[in-house]
Amino acid sequence: MNGRCILMCSGEFHPMDIDRKPQDFVIAVDGGLKYLTECGIEPDFLLGDFDSLGEEYAETVAKYRGMGEDHFRQLPVVKDDTDTLAAAKLGISRGYKEFLIYGAMGGRLDHTMANIQTMIWILRNGGRASMLDGDTRVTVIGPGVFEIPEDFEGTVSLFSLDRCLSNVTIRGMKYEVKNAAVPNDYPVGCSNETLPNGGSKGAYYSIGEGTGLLVMTENLLNPHH
Fold this sequence. Notes:
Number of strands: 14
Distance between the termini: 42 Å
CATH superfamily of the largest domain: Thiamin pyrophosphokinase, catalytic domain
Strand content: 25-35%
Number of helices: 4
Strand order of the largest sheet: 4-3-2-1-5-6-7-14-9-12
CATH class of the largest domain: Alpha Beta
């Protein structure tokens, strides 16, 4: 399946271009319906417990409810799965492998962490997911090679989501390493940089073992903390 599963959640969302393709499957996750409406995008599926939608969206919710289970699912407020995880499970069940998640960062830190865990679930169930907001893309990567897009210029940080990432190799970046260890109690992978003048061509991160969080921020060079 060549299409992507696009989830619009109800966290903070800074206006950005959402390149929806005809084969993509767009899920409005609860209050994310508001953001899609502002972007002029009509979702294919509406899912959530709808505890964060105002009365002004009651007509839209009723419309999708009337379209049946192929387009609508109401979740209980009290549940184990978050709305975002339920949406991810729906996308996986329909055969999608690539997930783009918007409105999933900022605001409540616990929700952001829950969405990162959802990306881990997607990875371990055969997919790959990225959270996008403004100039930032956050991706969970497992063993293997992750190539930095050639048109990307900015800062890249790698954090371990396991006890330790082993055999980490970084090439084509300002700071390179080979067969290094990246533990989860020391931020050694923070704030790497692409090379100037389009130097990210051929740049990549490779992990031998473990699950990592890759944070890419465009045009953010040199500011360190």
